[in-house]
Design a protein that fits this description.
Shape: elongated
Number of helices: 11
Structural class: mainly alpha
Largest sheet: none
Radius of gyration: 18 Å
């Protein structure tokens, strides 16, 4: 299978996930600020999840480093998409029960699992392409990739102590990944 087909499939799945999330947003029952304010928790959860999906959608940069797709890469990518597909349910639950410990923790677990799956996809590509591959050179020590799961795990535990701190950590990880990561682009340009 060519990498373009894999990237196109991934794009389609992520687009559907975002569509499902936006369809979960409800229209305010009323025409005043109070009605709109009641939807704020759902909107906050939606925005955070949308940002995460946009960050993961950028995995197409990683797919540009692939010369050919084997079964391991195909399954690793499907594994990532599976965990991403659970984000709408976790988003809706947290939005409906904002600052409740269990939904906030489950939301964190729903963020942790794609992070692990993304790491496994990276490993599958490096395994197939070799330790001297473009991706292996680009990811280097991958500090953000190693720090993110640790912050998610801390946030999951913190959800039972202070859901606000937990959500703050989820936002922190998103902000970390919003800072443009030019490693793959740089290595592709140099190669």
């Amino acid at each position: 299978m060519g990498k373009d087909r894999l990237a196109a499939f991934s794009d389609g799945v992520i687009a559907i996930i975002i569509t499902i999330m936006v369809l979960e947003l409800k229209v305010p029952h009323g025409a005043d600020w109070a009605a709109l304010k009641s939807l704020a928790p759902n909107l906050v959860a939606y925005v955070l999840s949308f940002v995460y999906l946009a960050i993961y959608w950028n995995h197409h940069h990683m797919l540009h480093t692939v010369t050919r797709v084997d079964g391991l890469i195909l399954w690793a990518n499907s594994h990532l998409l599976f965990w991403l597909s659970l984000i709408p349910a976790a988003t809706a639950w947290m939005g409906e029960n904002f600052l409740s410990p269990l939904p906030t923790a489950i939301y964190g677990a729903t963020l942790l699992m794609p992070a692990i799956a993304y790491f496994l996809l990276e490993r599958a590509i490096v395994h197939q392409q070799g330790r001297d591959s473009v991706l292996a050179s680009a990811i280097g020590r991958d500090l953000k990739g190693k720090l993110s799961p640790l912050l998610y795990a801390a946030a999951i535990v913190l959800a039972f102590v202070s859901p606000w701190l937990s959500i703050a950590l989820y936002v922190l990880v998103a902000v970390m990944w919003l800072i443009p990561d030019r490693r793959i682009e740089r290595v592709l340009r140099e190669g």
